[in-house]
Amino acid sequence: MEHDQQPEPTPERQSAASSSGRRQSPAGKRAPVIKDVAALANVSVSTVSRYLNDSPKLSEESRARIAHAIALLDYRPSRVARGLVNSAVQSIAVLSSNTTLYGSAMTIQGVEDEARANGYPVTIAKLDGESTAGLRASVNMVMDLNPGGVVVLNYDAVAREALAMLPDSVAKVAIAGDRVDDVAELDQIDLCENQAGRELTEYLLGLGHRTVIHVTIPGGGGGYSRTAGWEAALRGAGLPVPDVRHCTWNPKDAREIGRRIGRGVVSGDATTAVFAGNDEIAMGVIRGLADCGVRVPDDVSVVGFDDHPLADVWSPALTTYRQDFAAAGRRAARLLVERLGARSRGEDLPSRRVELPGELVIRDSEAAPRAR
Amino acid sequence: MEHDQQPEPTPERQSAASSSGRRQSPAGKRAPVIKDVAALANVSVSTVSRYLNDSPKLSEESRARIAHAIALLDYRPSRVARGLVNSAVQSIAVLSSNTTLYGSAMTIQGVEDEARANGYPVTIAKLDGESTAGLRASVNMVMDLNPGGVVVLNYDAVAREALAMLPDSVAKVAIAGDRVDDVAELDQIDLCENQAGRELTEYLLGLGHRTVIHVTIPGGGGGYSRTAGWEAALRGAGLPVPDVRHCTWNPKDAREIGRRIGRGVVSGDATTAVFAGNDEIAMGVIRGLADCGVRVPDDVSVVGFDDHPLADVWSPALTTYRQDFAAAGRRAARLLVERLGARSRGEDLPSRRVELPGELVIRDSEAAPRAR
């Protein structure tokens, strides 16, 4: 990298640079400052400053020269140069009980992309689910930054509790979860999980399976959840609803559940289809079934949820239900930006609910049940 | 959830609540306020306020009663109550060109956990690698929040460029990447990737493989990288260094590379071992080899990097090199907290470099080469 071709700065130069706070980066890479613009445009620094602050006291001609110099230098004025040093930087805060799972990470990236495009930095807070006190502390810490708006990844009960802790006055968007009616200034993005769970289950029943076992993600359940959709499909077909198998986010635990299901199949029970709460759980279940010599989809069909990047690479390629988490994050940020814009105009927006349905993705992990 | 048992607030109540900014959450869940503490302790609000601000003008007896009330109510004073309303909230900023990949997401969570434990909220900025202008804009946006310190996930050239754009004056920690000597106020966490790549390669050579093909992650390379370690191991064994196969983060592309390698094997070339730049790439390569009827590890050995949560569940279970990303993130945040603490005492810390070596994890995806 070109940076490495730079001579090592001596300690003196370093500390001098530090104390002066001056940027020290490889030649050519140094961020241009207002003085560079003034020099190139052949005007005074204060003239450039007037330009940056849209002062009317500026000739069209110098305005044009400065604009040209800024373009040439690829100059990015700091907030100070823009005279905004005393105005608060509004940020968008994201609250989530997990920031590393595929769905959460993609959602946060979507929020980040859209927020940045609109000039809002993003703060994230991993919600502390250990205790109400800890949860409130993690929420307060972010609220202390006075974010312009908050996005809550409402994927579990911890997030739902945090949602209820937020001041009414702050603009909020909740992604996923049940419909919320007791929180003010809230917009909601509905990932239509209930419909998705019903579709997946009905699809398996349509292949001839007599019932479908469901392995749920942590905090699954709730009227709008994929689990509720699974139940609805079974009841709709006049079938009894088997006990839900509860799993953690750890694929190793899913593998253990797969082994338990596998032992049942080997001993001749009626299990022929499994709907896993997400793709990683489906992968663990499939591996656990294989540990017992149970083949997918020949002996048992297994479908997942999300369309994880590895779902297609897994063997057999996973049939799943695609969720566009990045789009949900982008849309959430846009809803906030719109609400904040309306506020700045003294307007008030009604609560909005946006539906972002996913889609059934059929691959190779399911089949019609074999006569056993 | 209990929240749902609350009556729906009427629009009037909502807007009233909003305008007053008063918290509105289900009974029993309402965050206790300073008045509740005063009432329970049977003292005045201003007395509680004096307590919160460590005023000496307070009798031991009321001090004890207030402490007891705070404990009973699980009261968390806001910054306002603590009289900190006018003090800046120092945050820790994380810069990364990607926030969704397993390694990045885990590292960010580590930073978040440690920062929160020390009272610092975390801001993340996904670095815009499209253009220098965009990159500078994404860096400036975070710097506008005046973070107390910055953690750069130095996993690629974009992050390295961002590192050079940061003001010297701000405290920084770089995680991974080559040794950096031209950036002031910088601590570094070395994940010892070079050693890891060398170990993995030497392990495969030790099994009898004549050479090892390397499929690199984007931006791989650089003297401290796993790729450099692979090269060093081959040269150390007096072997020629085959061309590096460049992959994206998308497992589908890794699968295509696996197919190309597989076609070579089928047509009788000498390939018997592959070192993939990370576990997702290893999974893709293995699937691509399988597409050609090439078995792992029977025909070709494939090892990954990171110890992804699915590495153990994958079939065959992946032999890989475990990296403790969460520990790297936590350590980075601690280095910043120490540096900021020293600054607040008017002290200056020397630049520190912390080594966090990973460990070889042997599973089932490699074997001695078969005579072909």
Most residues in contact: chain pair: A-B, 87 and 87 residues
Sequence stretches where pLDDT stays below 50 over 5 or more residues of chain A: 1-29, 82-87
* Biggest sheet overview of chain A: 6 strands, parallel
Structural class of chain A: alpha/beta
**CATH architecture identity of the largest domain in chain A:** 3-Layer(aba) Sandwich
The largest sheet of chain A has its strands arranged as 2-1-3-4-5-11
Word description of this protein:
2 copies of one chain form a homodimer. The first copy, chain A, contains 12 helices and 12 strands. Chain A has helices at 11-20, 34-41, 45-52, 60-73, 102-117, 132-143, 157-165, 193-206, 226-236, 251-266, 279-291, 325-344; strands at residues 92-96, 122-126, 149-153, 171-175, 186-190, 213-216, 245-246, 273-276, 301-303, 320-322, 353-355, 359-361. In chain A, the strands form 3 sheets. In chain A, strands 2-1-3-4-5-11 form a 6-stranded parallel beta sheet, sandwiched between helices. In chain A, helix 7 (157-165) links the parallel strand 3 and strand 4 (171-175). In chain A, helix 2 (34-41) packs across helix 4 (60-73). The longest helix of chain A has 20 residues, at 325-344. The first copy, chain A, is elongated, with a radius of gyration of 27 Å. Chains A and B meet through helix 1, helix 5, strand 2, helix 6 and helix 7 of A and helix 1, helix 5, strand 2, helix 6 and helix 7 of B. Strand 2 (122-126) of chain A pairs antiparallel with strand 2 of chain B.
Which terms summarize this structure?
homodimer, 372 residues, alpha/beta, 434 Repressor (Amino-terminal Domain), Rossmann fold, 3 domains, 6-stranded parallel β-sheet, 4-stranded parallel β-sheet, 13% strand, elongated, disordered N terminus
